[in-house]
Amino acid sequence: MAHANEKEIDTRTEEEKAIDAWLPITSDRNAKWWYSTFHNVTAMVGAGVLSLPYAMSEMGWGPGITVMLLSWAITFYTIWQMVEMHEMVPGKRFDRYHELGQHAFGEKLGLWIVVPQQIVVDVSSCIIYMVTGGKSLKKFHETVCPDCQPIKLTYFIIIFSSVHFVLSHLPNFNSISLVSLAAAVMSLTYSIVAWACSIGRGIEGREVSYELRGEKTSDNIFMFLSALGDVAFAYAGHNVVLEIQATIPSTPEKPSKGPMWKGVWVAYLIVAVCYLPVAFIGYWAFGNVVEDNILLSLEKPVWVVAAANLFVVVHVIGSYQVFAMPVFDMIETYAVKSMRLKPSTLLRFGVRTTFVAFTLFVGMTIPFFGGLMGFFGGFALAPTSYYLPCIIWLIIVKPKRFGFSWFMNWFCIIAGILLTVLSPIGGMWTLIKQAKNYRFYQ
User: Fold this and answer.
1) By CB distance 3.0 to 4.6 Å, which of 117, 359, 416, 434 could disulfide with 368?
2) DSSP category for residue 50
3) In angstroms, rounded to a whole number, what is the distance separating the alpha carbons of residues 76 and 8?
4) pTM for this model (two decimals)
């Protein structure tokens, strides 16, 4: 398919060019292919991987393995679709998820379908990363100083947030590349630590039960539904794919999908290396007593557990920034294009500081890690990663009816809708249960 050079088809006014040069997503298009690797790894391999053994304990071996492998395959297929659709229309780049949605569904309907979902995904992910960062700092403190006076989790969340009050003012995706690279390296490192230490725990010969966690059948049903949301949260990162690809240069001879797809291939191999061993080995080692964060179940070697929790902190710092950048872009775009405010450092400072403060406040108010992931994983992340790309593909590409592509897309759509409908029920049940048992002095 033809691709027109951006310089040849640029019909923007000088004011529009100046605004695009200021906005986070379109201000810098000099990224290399490996940028997409560590941005995608940072977006996907985050808090979710640590909950996968817990999700396995709620599903059991057979259903758990099936759901894990199916989710990897479905989301790998849908991320390929999004990379392909980035420049599917000759002479145009869909730099933002909602722009692709507007092309498929219409200008107004596309906004209403995509933007609310993307905002919920990005904002909820940032809130969860606030909680995860605080929990990991707390675990690090308790590990290295077991005799110290206990400190409330809310204080650790505040400490974690202080970094974001600084990093959030980096202007665009390419400016956070080093942060994202460090986060990607840390995700691979703490995933290896999690399953390696779990092997050590497993071969000690302790008795492990693989019975489902619930005491009643109804409990096990709700837990299974919640586990589906946990898996959906872990595999979902597609809401920032187009924004990441927008940072890669493109010409008719070398469209951006080439280097982007290369980066995505490597990223998904890393995802498999991180997710599957952590999920399966973690569950094998601890069975149905595993914590909703696998690192909280590990006790020794002490220095390794402490280091792994610091690795998680570094990683979720990067993950927060990757998910926050599209939100910054949306708000700043609305401010300068709809509200006609002048692009300025003061505007950017106000928008981003307010956002960090908001996610901090909600994170301190609802620090329930497992329930949040189960609810948001199905409610928001499943649509944007499991089946919305398939619906858009059917509308734009129009594959041959009853052909492989047609069947594959409808399979993903049905599976994704089931996730969206069922898993929030389990997630809300888990959230309510955890809220009843939570002690705020912890």
Assistant:
1) 434
2) H
3) 33
4) 0.85
Distance CA 98, CA 107 (A): 9
Domain 24-128+161-434 has CATH 1.20.1740.10: yes
**Among 370, 366, 396, 318, which Cα is nearest to 104's?**
396
Between CA 176 and CA 243 the distance in angstroms is 13
Are 1 and 248 a contacting pair, CB within 8 Å?
no
Alpha carbon distance 244, 40 (integer Å): 8
Q: What is the pLDDT of residues 357-414, one digit of tens each?
A: 999 999 888 776 445 655 666 666 788 888 999 999 999 999 988 889 999 999 999 9
Neighbours of 4 (CB within 10 A): 17
Phi-psi region at 343: left, alpha or beta (left = phi > 0; alpha = psi -120 to 50): beta
| Neighbouring C-alpha atoms within 13 Å toward the C-beta of 23 | 25
Contact 76, 302 (CB under 8 A): no
Q: How far apart are CA 55 and CA 25, in angstroms?
A: 34
Query: What does 397-422 look like in DSSP terms, one character per residue?
Result: T-PPTTSHHHHHHHHHHHHHHHHHHH
